């Protein structure tokens, strides 16, 4: 199952996006606009539209939250390592590196208070995002960035009166432990997605059926097959 268009959910509206433009808008679960034109609805149409809108409102935020929470968990684990290490300028530089690296991933999932955005993608792609894209990227970022933290700390201590030295093996063991913590958290999010996948697919199939009924009754919507089953 897949979403063929971007979806924005807000308390009063649902917007179906294509190329960063709103093509379909549902207001208050019962008012429909297609390409900016108000569509007059019969009572049965309004009932179907409300079912469709409410289904999206229950479903999309849950998917977005799983993805966003996974990213935030990885970020918080990395940033916890920054606390108290290096100068304030170094800490700011490392945090900026982390946030720049994750910005491109998070363009696919946005959660801001009670507003949600989901980019076009399938459930399989979301699973791939957590397993095969986010985890390796955070892993590499953690090893590069936190390795630099330990390197800076080691160099500073080597030049101090204490003549403290830490072996590279000890450095990477500490970094590895932190990376393991990040991966455990991301694995938990992936497992949560897997556990809910059957329910998600069932909900999407139900939404797909409602959408097909709406398209039969409202030809204006036939161009916007939002929920689809991948062949």
From TrEMBL:
Q: Which Pfam families match?
A: DUF2884
Q: Which domain of life is it from?
A: Bacteria
Q: What is this protein called?
A: DUF2884 family protein
Please report the organism this UniProt entry assigns to the protein. Rheinheimera pacifica
């Amino acid at each position: 199952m897949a979403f063929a268009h971007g979806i924005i959910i807000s308390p009063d509206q649902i917007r179906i996006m294509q190329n960063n433009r709103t093509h379909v808008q549902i207001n208050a679960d019962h008012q429909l606009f297609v390409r900016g034109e108000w569509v007059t609805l019969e009572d049965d149409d309004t009932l179907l539209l409300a079912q469709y809108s409410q289904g999206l409102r229950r479903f999309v935020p849950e998917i977005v939250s799983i993805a966003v929470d996974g990213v935030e968990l990885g970020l918080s684990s990395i940033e916890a390592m920054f606390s108290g290490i290096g100068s304030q300028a170094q800490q700011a530089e490392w945090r900026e590196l982390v946030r720049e690296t994750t910005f491109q991933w998070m363009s696919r999932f946005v959660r801001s208070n009670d507003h949600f955005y989901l980019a076009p993608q399938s459930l399989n792609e979301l699973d791939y995002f957590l397993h095969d894209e986010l985890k390796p990227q955070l892993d590499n970022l953690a090893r590069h960035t936190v390795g630099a933290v330990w390197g800076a700390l080691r160099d500073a201590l080597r030049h101090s009166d204490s003549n403290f030295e830490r072996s590279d093996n000890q450095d990477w063991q500490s970094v590895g432990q932190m990376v393991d913590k990040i991966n455990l958290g991301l694995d938990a999010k992936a497992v949560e997605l897997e556990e809910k996948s059957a329910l998600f697919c069932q909900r999407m199939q139900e939404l797909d059926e409602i959408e097909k009924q709406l398209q039969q009754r409202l030809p204006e919507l036939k161009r916007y097959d939002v929920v689809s089953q991948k062949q």
